[in-house]
């Protein structure tokens, strides 16, 4: 470790290490991210870790660590997240420092821990006076009458029953057993197969409490499957955004690895754009604009507001899932890359080229957030034109962005999806075309050839929010919105708020 002074991230999770946590970690003075989870590390947590003054995130979960949690963890000013769950730790946990901001799932599975918060058992030697009555649970300290005891037992029974019905990351168990998944998916039957991804199969399941789930089973014959599992676990377990898919649980052993995700009843955005059997696309203008705006907000979160910078690397309609209320969620993080400062961590795929044909940036590839911006721009243009980027019409160096650019803005009616214009009156056409032009302009800016000329996702999300509010008003947050009511509310409105920002102008030469 003494030779790793400049290292910023160490991730050896999901291995078979069986040793004490090396005290020499303290020599990695620039370390920001430490993940030793899902191993067999034993012994106490070395107090020398507190010497890592730049540490932001530490994950020691699912090991065999013993002893007390070093009190100094609560005094580390830089530490933002800590996960000590599923170990054999004992002693008091004080609500100080990082422990004041984490949820109870990060210390679950340590039966010897005690304290005055997170439903922990009270410590007999606690410095804090234990209240006689808790806000959530009445703790009997004096044997009372039979009526009092019976009331308490009934209360506890009903409380635990309600808790089992709640699907919440803060109280959901860290693992669901293999047998539970077998029961939920009817033995991973073909009838429950709902999709096949790059690294595995996805099944619909129903847990015993009635919760619908999607189970992504990794194909362990693929040499990259373990890395894929590791990547998705590390990204999704900390997600807190309505437009990014969340992880419910994992199931992992030597022969089986699966992610348990919420079931998205409306399937993928790709399925809605291109229905089976040649049916018409049922997404109206308001639907498509809202979906585009919320995808941008999810990507903004991953690029600018997550604990590390996440590069999705494969953003496309089939990797955007729609929930019961048509809320879009960015999904499938199998080839994701994580950035710590300016350094790419070990999750980087060994493949020379990542992503899907048609969505990969021609310059800059997918190694930076600007690669995701390009993919998003293609997705946005695809939403407006309903043309796949691999359509047979794109030949001899012409692709979707170039085709739209050649017709923008004077021939926009020749590229936009006819379904969006079919029932529009001639008197209302200019309003609709103005709206489409503004969104199409964003898509073209995102697909500029040089990465440095593309906007970032924060700028894109802000721009789309402004456009949506201008044309749809506050009703843009509701689905579905009939195109005629949209026209009634915006008929005659001039686009005076947006102007022609030079940063968003598009050359069509």
Gist of the model:
The chain has 509 residues and is an alpha/beta fold. It has helices at residues 146-165, 178-184, 225-236, 269-273, 285-305, 369-385, 400-407, 429-446, 457-472, 483-490, and strands at residues 9-11, 33-35, 42-44, 57-59, 64-67, 81-83, 88-92, 112-114, 193-197, 200-206, 212-218, 249-252, 257-262, 309-311, 320-322, 328-330, 337-340, 343-344. The protein starts with 8 loop residues before the first strand and ends in a 19-residue tail after the last helix.
Please, could you describe this protein's structure?
- The chain is α/β, with parallel strands linked by helices and 509 residues long.
- It folds into three domains: 9-114, Ribonuclease Inhibitor (Leucine-rich repeat, LRR (right-handed beta-alpha superhelix), Alpha-Beta Horseshoe), CATH 3.80.10.10; 178-262, 2-Layer Sandwich (Phosphorylase Kinase, domain 1), CATH 3.30.200; 274-504, Transferase(Phosphotransferase) domain 1 (Transferase(Phosphotransferase), domain 1, Orthogonal Bundle), CATH 1.10.510.
- Helix content is 26%, strand content 14%.
- The chain contains ten helices and 18 strands.
- It has helices at residues 146-165, 178-184, 225-236, 269-273, 285-305, 369-385, 400-407, 429-446, 457-472, 483-490, and strands at residues 9-11, 33-35, 42-44, 57-59, 64-67, 81-83, 88-92, 112-114, 193-197, 200-206, 212-218, 249-252, 257-262, 309-311, 320-322, 328-330, 337-340, 343-344.
- Helix 5 runs antiparallel to helix 6, helix 6 packs antiparallel against helix 8 (429-446) and helix 8 runs antiparallel to helix 9 (457-472).
- It is globular.
- The N and C termini lie far apart (56 Å).
- The model is unreliable at 126-137, 161-174, 341-353 and 474-500 (pLDDT under 50).
């Amino acid at each position: 470790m003494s030779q790793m002074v400049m290292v910023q991230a160490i991730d050896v999770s999901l291995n078979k290490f069986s040793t004490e946590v090396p005290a020499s970690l303290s020599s990695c003075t620039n370390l920001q991210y430490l993940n030793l989870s899902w191993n067999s590390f034993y012994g106490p947590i070395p107090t020398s870790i507190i010497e890592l003054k730049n540490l932001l995130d530490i994950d020691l979960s699912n090991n065999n660590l013993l002893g007390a949690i070093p009190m100094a963890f609560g005094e580390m000013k830089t530490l933002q997240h800590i996960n000590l769950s599923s170990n054999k730790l004992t002693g008091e946990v004080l609500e100080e420092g990082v422990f004041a901001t984490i949820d109870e799932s990060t210390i679950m599975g340590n039966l010897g821990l005690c304290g005055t918060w997170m439903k922990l058992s009270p410590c007999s030697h606690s410095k804090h006076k234990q209240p006689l009555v808790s806000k959530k649970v009445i703790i009997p300290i004096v044997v009372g009458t039979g009526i009092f005891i019976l009331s308490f037992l009934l209360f506890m029974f009903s409380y635990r029953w309600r808790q089992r019905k709640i699907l919440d990351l803060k109280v959901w168990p860290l693992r669901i057993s293999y047998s539970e998944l077998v029961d939920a998916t009817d033995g991973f039957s073909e009838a429950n197969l709902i999709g096949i991804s790059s690294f595995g199969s996805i099944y619909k399941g129903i847990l015993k409490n009635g919760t619908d789930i999607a189970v992504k089973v990794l194909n362990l014959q693929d040499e990259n499957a373990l890395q894929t599992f590791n990547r998705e676990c590390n990204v999704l377990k900390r997600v807190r955004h309505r437009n990014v898919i969340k992880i419910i649980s994992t199931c992992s052993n030597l022969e089986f690895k699966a992610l348990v995700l919420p079931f998205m009843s409306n399937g993928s955005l790709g399925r809605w754009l291109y229905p089976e059997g040649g049916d018409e696309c049922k997404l109206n203008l308001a639907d498509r604009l809202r979906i585009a705006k919320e995808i941008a907000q999810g990507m903004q979160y991953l690029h600018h507001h997550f604990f590390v910078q996440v590069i999705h690397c494969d953003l496309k309609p089939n990797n955007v899932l729609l929930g019961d209320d048509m809320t879009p969620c960015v999904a499938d993080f199998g080839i994701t890359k994580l950035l710590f400062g300016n350094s790419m961590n070990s999750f980087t795929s060994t493949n020379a080229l990542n992503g899907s044909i048609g969505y990969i940036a021609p310059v800059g590839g997918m190694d930076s957030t600007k690669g995701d911006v390009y993919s998003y721009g293609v997705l946005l243009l695809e939403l407006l034109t309903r043309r796949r980027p691999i359509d047979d019409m794109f030949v001899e160096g012409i692709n979707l962005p170039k085709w739209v650019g050649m017709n923008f803005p004077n021939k926009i009616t020749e590229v936009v999806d006819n379904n969006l214009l079919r029932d529009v009156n001639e008197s209302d056409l200019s309003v609709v075309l103005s709206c489409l032009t503004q969104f199409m302009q964003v898509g073209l800016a995102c697909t500029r050839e040089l990465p440095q000329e593309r906007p970032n996702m924060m700028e894109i999300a802000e721009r789309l929010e402004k456009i949506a509010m201008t044309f749809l008003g506050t009703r843009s947050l509701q689905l579905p919105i009939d195109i005629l009511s949209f026209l009634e509310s915006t008929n005659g409105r001039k686009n005076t708020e947006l102007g022609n920002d030079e940063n968003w102008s598009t050359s069509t030469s």
